[in-house]
Specification:
5-stranded mixed beta sheet; 3-stranded mixed beta sheet; binds heme C; alpha+beta; Immunoglobulin-like; Helix Hairpins; binds copper (II) ion
Length: 379
């Protein structure tokens, strides 16, 4: 045995492999099968194009990796020095035409194959059919807004947030943008990531084979609540989709005064909330008055109750038994920055109303919010 390895302490011999095992263990914890953020589990045409490419290139890369590892191991063992002092250099070689040509041409062929396979996939994923529905996806700190142009006339018929609802089995054109910093729109089971950059409209497509709910997450660090900037992509069958559209395209209504709590909540909303939040046909003025937000936009609440979640997809809007999750809704309206990391002093996110609103006003407002729109339609 050589001098150096004889000096190695027995502790180190144990610690090294143990450390390696822990590292591999930690790395593979991300590999749960069937998780909602599983990129290797395509549920639509676009994701499948990416998955096919990943599978082919991944397997090829593993084969190349094995060949290289075997060759390197062979060379290391076969040509190791036999000189006990380590002073003598092995025979030095300069220039070997066959070897140099081989390690240039073989990788070049590999890269050409990868390029030839990737290019059509890139073009296919970027192409959009003008006849398909278009949804403008706006990222802001820290939630997503979805504006639907159903007939491609440049006008948005529906504005919502949190859930992006769309017809299953159809391609939907997305235009991804941001109203403040760079975000990234990502629904792993349906497509790759696409950066949301202020001033740019970047195309992406959404397609799901079957009705279902697919989870998404902002994938570009965008500040304080980046980790709490989620979304759900809800694919509906044709009948449900048409019902959803007809519900969403109806404007809000001014309460008729029958329910006094709702009436008081509606009035308090006008006083405290309508500078930021729009309710179509009821409180339309928020955008005109330039809401005190960096993004200039707060969630449109016209059909709030038609969503499954709120505040960037982090709170459920409904309890398991189907009743409205009034507890979380009330806690949110009372003190949003206490429920999710926001920076209202920096014009990022909703302000706290803990000091301004009494418990009675809060429950009135929640009563009013509960009247906004119908219950969500789920696959
Ligand atoms: C300074 C602007 C501002 C004011 C004023 C404001 N909000 Fe908000 N509100 C926001 C922003 C921004 C969000 C999104 C926060 C997030 O999810 O990160 C939000 C989110 C919400 C949500 C969740 C909506 C969704 O779909 O995720 C509700 C409900 C809500 N606000 C209700 C209210 C009520 C009720 C009031 C008045 C008491 C109010 N807000 C006042 C800016 C405001
Ligand atoms: Cu982010």
């Amino acid at each position: 045995m050589r001098a150096s390895s004889a000096q190695r302490s027995p502790m180190r011999r144990v610690l090294r492999p143990a450390g390696l095992a822990v590292a591999v263990g930690l790395l593979t914890t991300g590999c749960t099968e069937g998780g909602v953020f599983d990129t290797l589990n395509p549920k639509g045409e676009n994701a499948r194009i990416i998955d096919d490419l990943t599978n082919f290139i991944g397997i090829a890369a593993v084969v190349v990796g094995i060949v290289i590892t075997v060759l390197v191991t062979y060379v290391v063992i076969r040509y190791r020095t036999t000189d006990e002092t380590y002073d003598a250099l092995p025979e030095q070689v300069h220039g070997h035409t066959v070897a140099e040509l081989t390690w240039t041409i073989v990788p070049a062929i590999g890269l050409i194959v990868v390029t030839v396979l990737s290019l059509p996939a890139i073009f296919e994923l970027d192409s959009q059919d003008k006849d398909d529905i278009t949804v403008l996806v706006e990222g802001q700190q820290w939630w997503w807004q979805f504006s639907y142009d159903l007939d491609n006339d440049g006008e948005y018929e529906i504005v919502t947030s949190g859930d992006i609802v769309f017809p299953a089995g159809q391609q939907v054109n997305l235009q991804i943008t941001s109203n403040d910093v760079i975000h990234s729109f990502w629904v792993p089971e349906l497509n790759g990531k696409k950066d949301a950059v202020p001033g740019l409209h970047t195309p992406l497509k959404l397609h799901a084979d079957e009705p279902g709910v697919f989870w998404g997450q902002c994938a570009e660090f965008c500040g304080l609540s980046h980790a709490e900037m989620r979304l759900r992509a809800v694919a509906l069958d044709d009948t449900d989709w048409e019902r959803w559209v007809s519900e969403q395209t109806t404007a809000g209504v001014i309460p008729d005064g029958q329910d006094v709590a709702v009436q008081r909540g509606y009035e308090a909303f006008g006083q405290f909330c309508s500078s930021c939040h729009v309710v179509d046909g009821v409180y339309d003025s928020a955008y005109e008055n330039e809401p005190p937000l960096l993004s200039g936009i707060a969630p449109n609440l016209t059909h709030l109750m038609g969503r499954t979640s709120f505040a960037g997809g982090i709170f459920e809007l409904y309890n398991d038994d189907g009743t409205v999750n009034e507890a979380d809704l009330l806690a949110w309206v009372r003190d949003a920055p206490g429920r999710k990391a926001l920076a209202p002093d920096n014009q990022q996110g909703m302000t706290s109303f803990a000091e301004q609103l009494s418990n009675e006003q809060l429950s009135d407002i929640v009563a009013y919010l509960s009247t906004l729109g119908e219950a969500p339609i789920l696959p």
